[in-house]
């Protein structure tokens, strides 16, 4: 029922749902970009329902206040304290190992505002947990959303991040001026 609702609502809003890649794994870190609007969260949640992915997501801990916190947790939300970055990678890795194969969505820009650079935590989590990285786009220009590629980290952080960033552009963002290339 949730799947049909999400598919119908996205179509009604004019969005085209990208089909899951044929090599879609049973567990991954989903790198979602661009992230420049609060709408991105709703669209991403609807997409996961529309294609039937059980996915958690990282979100700034400031959003986990009552009564919103219990709702976000029920939807798969994992609060992140930005001041404890090194602990976050270990905590999420442990969660992924404990839960078994699962998906967790992370926005590498880390904020809806333009930042100096992408955060690399999503990469470190994926490599620590031995998971592929799925690249997911919210393309406001083409009104398309979804996972378009499965990427297997090589261990060369700089080269891999450069490649991943190259797969996204400001023109896809709701607010292109806020995109962090």
What does this structure look like?
It is a single chain. By secondary structure, the protein is α/β, with parallel strands linked by helices. The protein has one domain: Glycerol-3-phosphate (1)-acyltransferase. 36% of the residues lie in helices and 20% in strands. It contains 6 helices and 7 strands. The chain has a 7-stranded mixed sheet, sandwiched between helices. Helix 1 (2-12) crosses helix 2. It starts with a helix and ends in a 15-residue tail after the last helix.
Q: Keywords for this structure?
A:
Glycerol-3-phosphate (1)-acyltransferase, 6 helices, 181 residues
Task: Give the SSE map.
Elements: H1 2-12, E1 16-17, E2 28-33, H2 39-51, E3 55-60, H3 68-74, E4 77-80, H4 85-99, E5 103-106, H5 121-129, E6 133-139, E7 144-151, H6 157-166
Parallel strand pairs: 1-7, 2-5, 2-6, 3-4, 3-5
Antiparallel strand pairs: 6-7
Task: Please summarize what this structure is.
The chain has 181 residues and is an alpha/beta fold. Helix content is 36%, strand content 20%. It is built from 6 helices and 7 strands.
């Amino acid at each position: 029922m949730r799947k049909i609702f999400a598919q119908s609502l996205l179509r009604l809003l004019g969005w085209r749902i990208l089909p899951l890649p044929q090599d879609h794994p049973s567990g991954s870190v989903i790198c979602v970009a661009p992230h420049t609007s609060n709408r991105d969260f709703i669209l991403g949640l609807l997409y996961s329902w529309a294609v039937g992915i059980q996915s958690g997501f990282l979100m700034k801990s400031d959003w986990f206040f009552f009564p919103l916190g219990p709702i976000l947790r029920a939807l798969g939300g994992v609060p992140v304290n930005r001041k404890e970055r090194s602990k976050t990678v270990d905590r999420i890795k442990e969660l992924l190992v404990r839960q078994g194969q699962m998906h967790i969505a992370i926005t590498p820009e880390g904020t809806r505002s333009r930042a100096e650079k992408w955060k690399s935590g999503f990469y470190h989590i994926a490599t620590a947990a031995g998971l592929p990285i799925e690249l997911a786009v919210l393309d406001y220009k083409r009104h398309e959303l979804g996972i378009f590629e499965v990427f297997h980290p090589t261990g060369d952080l700089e080269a891999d991040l450069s490649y991943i960033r190259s797969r996204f552009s400001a023109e896809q963002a709701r607010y292109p001026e806020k995109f962090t290339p």
